[in-house]
Amino acid sequence: LAGLFSARHPVVNISRGGCSIYSEKAIPVGQVIKIQFFLPQNHTVTATVKVMWCKGSKGNSLGNYRAGLEFVTVSPDNLDCLLGLPATPISTPQLQLNKLLRNYPAKTSNTCYT
Q: In terms of pTM, does the model score above 0.90?
């Protein structure tokens, strides 16, 4: 999402159907875009998504807007990888990620970032 993010932001909700993210700018509803999820061990997952909704998120430090994205294309293996991630509070994603990386085997994944 070039130009939409000033930094990587945590995904706040993910399911088989899609995910919810925060953005610095509004994303047009109906737009089809490619996003990347950055996982531990330098693993990335690329997916094509369709913006289903986008609304203001005033007062939230994660972004000015929150958007609901529907998966259009993502491989079944990559989707399983994303869904197998342990839950992490969005207020401290990097601290949780570092803790889990120290305590889990190399094949275990954690927080998704877009």
A: no
